[in-house]
Amino acid sequence: MGKIKVTECGGIKGLKVVEPTVFGDARGYFMETYNYNDFAEAGIDCQFVQDNQSASKKGVLRGLHFQINYPQDKLVRVVNGEVFDVAVDLREGSKTFGKWYGVLLSAENKKQFFVPKNFAHGFIVLSEEAEFCYKVTDFYHPNDEGGLAYNDPDIGVEWPIPEGMELILSDKDQKWGSFKEYTANRSKKD
């Protein structure tokens, strides 16, 4: 394999942390953030069709989001600041259905997080501000968003929320339902 180190995460099949090789000197650094051949060799063989970027301030929590009918693989990274990034396995029949994994992503550590299709995803900004970039394998489809409550006890995400930090959530993110509601609704469709 070339210029990346790939690590499976928390025993959840398909979920991976990607660490690029960084070439640095007195002038700064250079790294490849994506190379199809290296990623395919590491088991991340997908066609990304759209790049997105967001900026958020400290305390912003986005998530936990997923796409209902048009699921996306995501390759996420932070180019400024620091976030705690989380994925929750929503793949039917998966041995780790409902399990979560989180990783600290920052401009400093340059790690990337590969989140396969059919996972819920979210992050909290820990630095004063953060710029978050991600590649996806399907285009945005309005009205195809689903979500789970970020603080659902059945999922049990251990968000590293510092004492005194005020969370900032969108109206939509404050209204997502529970994991139990999600699984009940899924079984009604089957």
Describe the structure.
There is one protein chain. By secondary structure, the chain is mainly beta. It contains three helices and 13 strands. It has helices at 36-41, 171-174, 179-189, and strands at 4-9, 12-20, 23-25, 28-30, 50-57, 61-67, 74-80, 82-89, 100-106, 112-115, 119-125, 129-136, 145-147. The strands form three sheets. A six-stranded antiparallel β-sheet has the order 1-2-10-7-12-5, with no helix packed on it. A five-stranded antiparallel β-sheet has the order 9-8-11-6-13, with no helix packed on it. A two-stranded antiparallel sheet has the order 3-4. The longest helix has 11 residues, at 179-189. It is globular and about 55 Å long. It starts with a strand and ends with a helix.
What keywords describe this structure?
mainly beta; 3 helices; globular; five-stranded antiparallel beta sheet; 190 residues; six-stranded antiparallel beta sheet
